[in-house]
Amino acid sequence: MTGFCADVDECIMMADREKLVKYEHFVNNVLREDLRILLEDREKLYENIAALSQLKQIIICISEDPHEEGLRTQVDLGSNFYIQAHVPDVSRIYVNVGLGFHIEFTLKEALTFIDKKLGILNEKLSESSKKSAKIKGQIRLCYEAIGELQALDKTKLTLICKMKVNKRDVPLKAVNINITKVWIISVFANFILWLLPIFFGKYTDVLFPYIAHNDITQELVGLIGPTENKFRMCPVVSPYLQNTLRLLDNNVDSLVDEEILMNNDIQAGGVWEPSDCNSRYHVALIIPYRNRSQHLQQFLTYMHPFLVRQQLKYRIVVVEQAEGVAFNRAKLFNIGFVETLKLSKADCFIFHDVDLLPQNDYNIYACTHHPRHMYSAVDTLRYHLPYRRLFGGAVAMQQVHFKKVNGFSNKFYGWGAEDDDMYNRIEQVGLSVIRFDPRVASYVMLSHSSVWRTEGRLEKLQDNKDDSEDGLSSLSYHVLDKKERSLYTWFLVSC
Ligand code: UDP
Ligand code: MN
To answer: What distance in Å separates the CA atoms of residue 330 and residue 477, rounded to the nearest whole number?
Structure first.
């Protein structure tokens, strides 16, 4: 212990403060730096894997359909200039094997090489995920320790003050023992949380099954043949996805409409589709809304470029509930579904809170064979799902599935349980809920104060289990106003 302190209590506090400074230094200068380097490396790994997978797909395409007359292609000269090229013999290919060396392979040899290389890269990836989970665990542990020390500091100060005011000789040590107990229990609990990823190799959400990173593309449901014969189909995974972890925290810009439009060629109504290929995925994002203008602007600023990069054909629909009655998130989703189908032929619907933002570029906003709960990890829940049947925040459902379950219940006014009711509906029609790997499906939530949980919601959830009439088939509402605004389609409804 350094420095001078007037009495024992003050000495203890100074010692705690010293520890505090040490912990903070360790988190900021050592752990966070390690994590940054690790994430950068992982980013490169993802890029390599994406490049190799794309090459593999091209080779498979060529070998399945070997053109006798060779291959016509376009070569990027840079600055958006392309030149036409003709490859007379496509039976052999040069592959970059690293360190600037290129080897001539037959297509079969190239595929074997790529598969081996992908295997190695995926191993590295999982190794790096283990390491990052470990560092994140350590950071969490340190933050807990810092929090405890700060709490301890404050508690002691109050105690000392009280003792001085009351001039009573309260045995500080006895009080300390209780605080120490709390501290030990909390450290122990966090230690267990920290150990889980080491044993399971990934997030603790490994306790809930999810689709592994490499299997995600097989789960996506998209068009497989050209529909409008305009262009070729876009690839299954867009080549414009580069950064895996695009968003590190919930400090998100909020640009004005004109700035967003300047960078992206969005059509009125918040509609977009690729101009050079037919998108496989026709998606509508339905946003329930009331009095969250700041969040909506942040959402549009972040999500438009995100969806454009994914080469989706999409429309963003905001369904605003007029004042008067309690907010009914689920009913707004039902209304959004019905009204959107009058405007476009979306076959995939994503029902999405306005305050949730996906952190990872590879979290593709398309539908899957089963309804998908979009977040496997979210910052506000410390990146751990609290229960397996969670279906809140953001979910993706095929149009046919949403009709099959008769949409959401219309009965849940106020906060909570409408999402759990949807989980029941999905189970009742024999579908199941899936999630993607938490590394891909991680989210941040824009800050807001927590909403008062509505009383009686759990009883209603229980009662509603057999009500098959409640939903799209019993939906009643009035559209008070609607507009194709520059960045979204807007409905003002009373319901
Ligand atoms: N919402 C809104 N205004 C409200 C309450 C809710 O626009 O007054 C919408 C908004 O899209 C929000 C979602 O409903 O993201 C879920 O509400 P909230 O974020 O309050 O719920 P929580 O994050 O606590 O689940
Ligand atoms: Mn929220």
So the answer is: 13
Tell the residue nearest (CA) to atom 15 of ligand 1: 353
Ligand 1 binding pocket mutation candidate from 250, 287, 354, 446 (most atoms within 8 A of CB): 354
Closest alpha carbon to 186 in 144, 151, 137: 144
Taking residue 216's Cβ as centre, other Cβ atoms within 10 Å add up to 21
For 60-96, the pLDDT digits (tens) are 777 777 667 777 777 667 666 767 778 788 888 888 8
**CATH (one of 3.90.550.10, 3.30.1330.60, 3.40.630.10, 1.10.3720.10) for 213-448+456-494:** 3.90.550.10
For the whole model, what pTM was predicted? 0.64
**pLDDT: is 157 or 113 the higher one?**
113
Q: Where are the domains of the chain?
A: 8-65+103-200, 213-448+456-494
Q: Which two tokens stand for residue 291?
A: 């009095």
Cβ-contact 35, 26 below 8 angstroms: no
> Of 427, 419, 417, 422, whose CA–CA distance to 459 is shortest?
417
Q: Which residues in 304-327 are b (16+ Cβ under 10 Å) and which e?
A: bbbbbbbbbbbbbbbbbbeeeeeb
CA torsion sign for 322, 328, 329, 332 is negative
User: How far apart are the C-alpha atoms of 482 and 269, rounded to whole Å?
Assistant: 10
Closest C-alpha to ligand 1, atom 13: 353
Identify residue 177 by its one-letter amino acid code. Answer: I
